[in-house]
Amino acid sequence: MSKPAYSIGQMFPGFSLPDSKEEKKDGRSLFGKYTLVDFWATWCGPCRKETPNLIKAYEVFHEKKFNVITISIDAISDRSKWMKAISDDKMEKFTNLFNGGDVGGLARELKIVAIPTNYLLDENGKIIATNLRGEQLVKKLQEINK
Description:
Radius of gyration: 14 Å
Structural class: alpha/beta
Order of helices and strands: EEHEHEHEHEEH
Largest sheet: 5 strands, mixed
Strand content: 15-25%
Oligomer: single chain
CATH class: Alpha Beta
CATH topology: Glutaredoxin
Strand order of the largest sheet: 5-4-3-6-7
Shape: globular
Number of strands: 7
């Protein structure tokens, strides 16, 4: 397994990816709050299982400057499955972006080799934690919001 390209203390790289309306979103413009950037795919069971935890954290901490950006690495041909999963899993409150396959783009720059993978960023886009799941995410957000 290769070493991640970015780690705690580094600035998250800039990126531009399309949302579900095929509008390009500039990653840096989405920061300004504590932000969880979560890489997933519709075919990834553990990813889909984690979604209720992300929703819970979002509902509790969104008013306290917390946001979630999900980035799908589904194949380009599976875009419709991605859009259906957003609806089925009730992810509409998140910023949902499409990386268009796991072989290029942001996922490759970050050297993501397994999903789910996530990065918690501060208001300026600096990585402050990685791969937080379930209660780990809630505890970290509680710590930040003290």
